[in-house]
Structures are given as structure tokens and as C-alpha cells.
Amino acid sequence: MRKKILCFTLCLMVLCFSSHPKTYGAETNKNEDNQKLMSLYKKVETLTTIPWYVFAAIDQYERNVRHSRRDIPKAPGLIEIYIKPEVWTGPLNPNQKDTDPRTIGLFGGIGVDGNGDKKAEPTNDEDVLYTIANYLQSYGSDLDNIKIGLWEYYHRDKAVGLILGHMKLFQKYGRLDLEGHAFPIPRQYNFTYHNTWGDARGWGGRRIHEGTDIFANYGVPVRSTCFGVIEMKGWNRYGGWRVGIRDIDNTYHYFAHLNGFADGLKVGQVVEPGQLIGSVGSSGYGPPGTSGKFPPHLHYGLYKDNGRTEWSFDPYPHLKAWERAERNKK
Ligand SMILES: [Zn+2]
């Protein structure tokens, strides 16, 4: 099939392992958890001068990392921020299970008591949250200093960037539930797509197809599939005009071969499911502006970050589910 040799993305062979977002229990449990989490964040906001969405963003980043890695223990409570024992109790502390705030302080640990029981316990939600708040506050509570504090804590630009993106989303919507999705093409337009995950690609060396091609006419609207922040917008010789959106689960939604972008769309902007981001085209396979080397289609890819690396996973089942959900909504 001709379309099988068309379109692909930047990466080479990427090791693909379990990457599906975690599944939650009943929807009501999740709502309850979110309410409890929000009151924890708000409580620490009143104890410090750091806004709740900073804690929500750090917790969300760590939740995603924890759920995609096997080397971090399961969270004992609702807060999923993981602070290593040597960081909590102090690197030279002979007792790595120390919960006495005074000795922890002496050994340079960051663990503090947040719930007033005179113990600094890494298994207590309030203690963990207040420890992070206290750590950040030592740098200052305005955004610039929070950024510095985050960098000092993670020593990874990517982590800081992801957390800042989450902050924007939580601040804008004022809630924790930002899980909604939309199919990228509005349902009144004609489109076709098949599962082409992993197909070989000929142009530009040996690669596999990391995504799903949705064939539609030039100019058909392309919409955001998630709540997220525009992380990338621009040209690439493979993908042509492209947009990348980072969602609240640290998943990166990649849209390639666009004809053009929505007016005013810019990096750092918050978008939501169904929001116009561009239109279908056939850009790519050459220097900026190259177009028409293959039939128009949207290349849609999904990438996941686990705090260390990023890898792609198959968007096809997700696209199918979002398409079905929209048809059922009518
Ligand atoms: Zn493609």
C-alpha cells in the first residue's frame, strides 16, 4: 500500500515498553482523591506563601514518574512525591529511618513535620508536602525562585519544564481533573486511518513508523487531543510543520505534516481538548516549506516521559477510543 511508505517521525528505533496510562478505580474514588489532594495542597498554601498549583504540579509530575518506573516504591499515601531516605534524613545521618526533625536538621536532611505530631515521616502526606514547601521556600516563594528551587532539587531541565507546564494548566483551570480527550479531526469531516504502528519507513534511513496517519483533505481542522501546553511548534525535515503538546500525564502529543497553524498559536500556550491548533497538509520531506511529496494526512504520535527518557507508544487504540466517545456523545 502506497500510504504505508509515507510519513514518519524523528526518532529511530525506540524501545517500546509498557506505557499505557495507569488505570484508576471507580470514577467516584478518583473524584474523592482529588478533593482530598486539593485540600492538602490548599492547606500547605496557607502555611507557606506558595500557591497550591505548585504542589499539585510537583505531585503530578512525580505521580507520572512513579507510575512508569519500577525502581521507585509505591506511594504510602495520596501524595506521590518521592523523597529519597538520604535526602529526607540527611546524607550523613546514620539512621536512614530517622523521623526526629531535630537530628534530621542536624544532618542536613530536608524532612520536616507538617501535621504537628513532632515527627517528620516520609510516609505522611502532610509531612511530605510540607517538606517540599519548606525546601522551596528556602529559595523564595515567587515564580523565579520556585524555578531555581526546582532546578536545585531535580537537576534536570526537563523535570522543571514539565512541572512548570503542569502549573500553568492547574492554575488556569483551577482543578485537578484535566483528563479529557478529543479526536484530532472534527467528526463532520471525512477521514480514514489504520493501525500502522511499527511499519518500516524508507525515507531518511531505517526507522519505524511511530504514530498513526489520519488521511484527510488539505485544510481540514486539526484539534488538540488533550489539556496541555504547546511545547514545540515549527519545522522539521521529516515532519514538516509540527506541533507538540504536553499533557498532564507527561504524555507528548505530536502533530505533523500540517498545512498551517491556528492563528496566534504559540509555544507555552495552554490548550484544551477540541481546540483548533492547525490544519491537515502534506508538509515535510525537505527544507522549510516543502509540501506535496505525499497525500495530505495528519501524522499523530504519542510519547511518554518517565523522568529519565522518552519513548513512543501506539496512539491507535487511544484514537479509536476518543473517536468512539465522540460518536456516542452525538
Ligand atoms: Zn505518519
TrEMBL record:
Keyword terms, alphabetized: Hydrolase, Signal
InterPro entries: Cell_wall_metabolism_enzyme, Dup_hybrid_motif, M23ase_b-sheet_dom
Pfam family, one: Peptidase_M23
Signal peptide: 1-21
M23ase beta-sheet core domain segment(s): 208-306
PANTHER family: L-ALA--D-GLU ENDOPEPTIDASE (PTHR21666:SF289), PEPTIDASE-RELATED (PTHR21666)
Protein name from the UniProt record: Murein DD-endopeptidase MepM/ murein hydrolase activator NlpD
Organism: Metabacillus niabensis
UniProt lineage: Bacteria, Bacillati, Bacillota, Bacilli, Bacillales
